[in-house]
Fold each of these.
Amino acid sequence: MDKKIEATQFQETHRVDRRTRPVYHATPPTGWMNDPNGFSIYDGKIHLFYQYHPYKDIWGPMHWGHCTSTDYVSWDDLPVALAPDVEYDASGCFSGSALTVDGRHALVYTGCEEREHDETVQSVNQQQCLAYGDGVDYIKRTCNPIIPISQLPEGYQANDFRDPKVWEQDGLYLMVAAAKDNDGFGHVLMYDSEDLENWKFRSSVTSSDGTYGDMWECPDLFRLDGSDVLTVSCMNVKNSPRGFHDGFGVIACLGDMDWDSGTLDIKAIQAVDQGADFYATQSLLTPDGRRIMIAWMQAWHNFIKPSHQKWHGMMTFPRELSVVDGRLIQKPVRELEQAYTNKVREENIEVSGGAEIEVPGVHGRAIDMTIDIIEADCKSFAISFDEAPDRGMRFTWIPKENRIVCNRILWGASEHTTDLYAEQTILLPESDSLPKLRFLVDRASVELFINDGVTVFSSTFYAPLEADSIMFSADGTVRMNIEKHDIDPEKARSIRERTVSLNEKTEDQAGIN
Ligand code: FRU
């Protein structure tokens, strides 16, 4: 049977009950999900594809799963868009991007092909490929691969050349893709094309010197608020600089592009998210000019999901980006407010004396909650989600050290699971103001936006669905205001259906990356 149909049928017959998956974050219908791919607006809808192995809850031959939304909050699953079914992508349809070309939806992805030369010698080719579709069905081009390894300049490795991000600029298509040089360092390569099928190598935009890992994956490059911003996902970071963590993580390089030479003059580098469950970012530009980024809310070191759970991996909630004072700022997309219900607001609440307290009405597993600390005279202040002896997620602010410590206790994991990130630290920037903590909680994750998105931290955690307590305690005294909203995606969907369709707004947007 056709591999795409087979995968779609499997997805339909093994679909996990929607009520047991996160409420407003994109998740796979069944099986394994990693990187977001082809995040784009096409034909009036937000399209999100993703690295997908429907058959198991672990990574395997990569397909492109597909879902759409009109509000970033409620997601509809679609048939599988790409399956590894031709020679040049037989080992997997790896990550890539999407754009609109002459009314068609173009997917640019990496075909991964393992070759066996004899019993002992194997090689892997990663080459860039193209498919066109109508928003549901996608057909691979017969001219694939559009960038074969023969177009990889001298000095780079054929087995690490992937994750094309393509956009249109000044009448040309530009691409950045990840590559590894023969010394083992990651580069961001740039290519250009007039027709999306014939490409010319332009430059190495920048490369790793080992400070932020070896290979770099999933590059994305865009202009924002007067800066050029390059994001890359770094593999195998060791002895990480302050504010970054070892393992896998995403950095943003802010600077100025010289488009003639195709190189980036980097002025500042920051960790995009201080949590370990954050990788493979990709962004889109909305018709109203917002740059929105999404990421896989997991990374390659961490596999902590409960063994009974048949879906694995989720996306972050999409974030609106801006650059302020040379720093990348992230906020949850404003459409989330359309899904608010059950507002609770309590002011001037005192937490003191070490005892754990609950605040009436403040609980839930699919919420947006902001805690504004208005007075603090304490050694520490803690917020715990769903805490019990065998599970929970606790954030402890230690004012003197200007950091928040995040502890999670695993629940339901198999005996093979280890959590390398059971304790993580969030460093806060020097500031005279008290922290404002905005938590997005959605059944299996917490994303924390500190001081309006200056610092962000994402983490998965698992607990029984009915566990919804939130407790506060302070070693000393803290006064705070709280505002909490439950999230109901169906509310966002119905508001969206009643208002202007994205379709009308996007008519002139063909080609936007
Ligand atoms: C990043 C990544 C990409 C690759 C994909 C394979 O997480 O390793 O570089 O295309 O995942 O699934």
Note: The chain has a mean pLDDT of 93.
Amino acid sequence: MQTLHLTCNDVQKAADIIKSGGVVAIPTETVYGLAASAFDIDAISKIYKAKGRPSDNPLIVHICDLKELEKVISDFPIKAQELIDEFWPGPITMILPKNEKIPSIVTGGLDSVAVRFPSHILAQEIIRKSGVPLVAPSANLSGRPSPTKFTHVVEDLDGKIDAILDGGDCNFGLESTVISFIDETPILLRPGAITPSEIEAIIGDIIIDDSVYTEIKAEQKVISPGTKYKHYSPKTDVVIVKGSPKSYGEFLNSHIAENPLALCFDEDLPFLETPFLSYGSIEDENEQAKNLFDALRQADKQNVSIIYAHSPSSENMGIAVYNRLIRSAGFNIIEL
Ligand code: TXA
Ligand code: MG
């Protein structure tokens, strides 16, 4: 299949392809998404196939107007409304009771549905012109780092989908925060740009799901099916190393025989004698979030045998960066 490469002037074209049952990769403020009509079962099957995504891993439904919520959900808890008032449009996804109109292929058979109102103007325009809510998982091959640049989508999906719309680099660089309102107390399932403390400032205490920090075993019951699958992995093995810039540098230098790459912070550079790739300043979680997935993709092209990643802090927004990195490392962590 030939994949059309569209520009920001082709929003109508992207919407026309979606309306006629196609799938189009579109930019959002978090990562690129692979979009199709949330009511078109055939188009949604194409998404699962192109990504190689397990069929029990549900998709997020994207809307561009709060009025569309009634087509998607069947109940609207007050705490969810409070968060929506504060953070939508924006990088936070709410899990809510599903409306019967949403096909079960969207939700992997669950009674709940994930909904998000993105703030990216092109994403909003494509949804509006398509005339329906759009499902859009991250536009990567299943298991690979999510795409934050047009070239990442081309790398993974060219020849497999109808079109890719180039909207430049994604502003945030990690996927949205996901919070579930299915139980009495809201549960954070995936950390993102909106932090737990920002959420708790609006709606009070929330639960942080175990899967945010720890590995879920195959037989464990999970709330969010996505958390049990291998994620964000480059082809080269990644190991996380916790320690100061000096001890991290010494560790890398003493492992030089392994042909390592240091996936590090700017502050580590004076201590390193090995090949390196910085994903930002140790102090700047926004910069780390924006660069991480691109750095993981670049690291794979460096002809190294192992990637030792310097661990980010798990405070505030750092929890989102840490959450993605421990998954890409398969929870393999060395504490110095
Ligand atoms: O920022 C984002 O959220 C991006 C952009 C494109 O909007 N999308 C994205 O979608 O990251 P995806 O499919 O890669 O991740 C969605 C996550 C998965 O972990 C999935 O298991 C979970 O949300 N999820 C979706 N529906 C759910 C539901 N009903 N209950 C629990 N978890 C759900
Ligand atoms: Mg994804």
Note: The mean pLDDT is 95.
